[in-house]
Amino acid sequence: MVPNYQRIVVFRLGRVRPPKGPGVVLILPLIDQWQKVDLRTRAFNIPPCKVTTKDGGLVSVGADIQFRIWSPVMSVVAVQDLNASTRLTAQKAMTHNLSKKTVREIQTERLKLAEHLSMDVNEMTRPWGLEVDRVELTLESVLKGPDDSLSGPVIMPPSMPGLEGIAGPIQQLAMHFLGNSGVSQPREGLGDTVSFVDEQGPPASAGVKRVSVEELLAAVELRLSEQLVQQVGACFQFQILRDGLVNNYFVDLSKGSGKVGAGTVAEPSVTLQMSEEDLLALFLGTLRPFAAYTSGRLKVHGELRTAMKLEELVKLIRPQ
């Protein structure tokens, strides 16, 4: 008798059979071998481990992970010890991802980092018939502060004529797309999060700001043309992760003069899934599409060749 939350994987003369249950299951003695699989959500804890961050800091970080089995047969056939393998995979993915972040990003963006970690672990454990439902990072302590020489804000140059009344990050983006050679570009190796400090404004407005996706798309819309559509010829659907939610945007360069906006399109050429920071980094030139894809930060649904046309789009929009 198999309860509703379990399944039985049967091997008949060494060959796996479809999972059986719930309810009454008949087993042939001496011919069938069987194993129970629990489909309920389980959890485990990754004990705090030391991680050296991108800016030279040292932090102690742990995680709580919840997972469930969606394919009983794969969970039995693909891996010998499912719990141990999942724990080791999640721990390695956590240390690998956090080593690419700064101490400040780990402190302030744990929810987004947990989303990226969940996606990375799912990619590795999906062939095992396992799915991670929730990841929660716990920052125990900062054992060593970051090296000051490896971090620092990007200083804005004097205001461009005609843009004095525009807010700091929007002005920076406008100057970037208008081809002002005096705009300071983000230095390589400082991460994919771009921050701006407006030293020309009053002290009360100075601080770290970010360009939103909507502001970026508004700047992209100014560069649309029929020539751009002829060179790219594809419709990109973006699924952007922001604060645990998926926001949809599109850049349609398949007909006319092209258009951009929020929402979904009926038949996109390719669908791209990434975080908001990674999308901004792509268009600001600090992250290349192929590097984002190979590192798992860019998820592609569709033809990869079409997805890589995004790099051509970025080159045409961004001044060289």
UniProtKB/TrEMBL annotation:
Species the sequence originates in: Albula glossodonta
Family per similarity comment: Belongs to the band 7/mec-2 family.
InterPro entries, A to Z: Band-7_stomatin-like, Band_7, Band_7/SPFH_dom_sf, SCP2_sterol-bd_dom, SCP2_sterol-bd_dom_sf, Stomatin_HflK_fam
Domain Band: 2-160
Domain of life according to the entry: Eukaryota
Alphabetical list of Gene3D superfamilies matching this protein: Band 7 domain, SCP2 sterol-binding domain
Name this polypeptide is given: Band 7 domain-containing protein
Alphabetized Pfam families for the sequence: Band_7 (PF01145), SCP2 (PF02036)
GO cellular component: plasma membrane
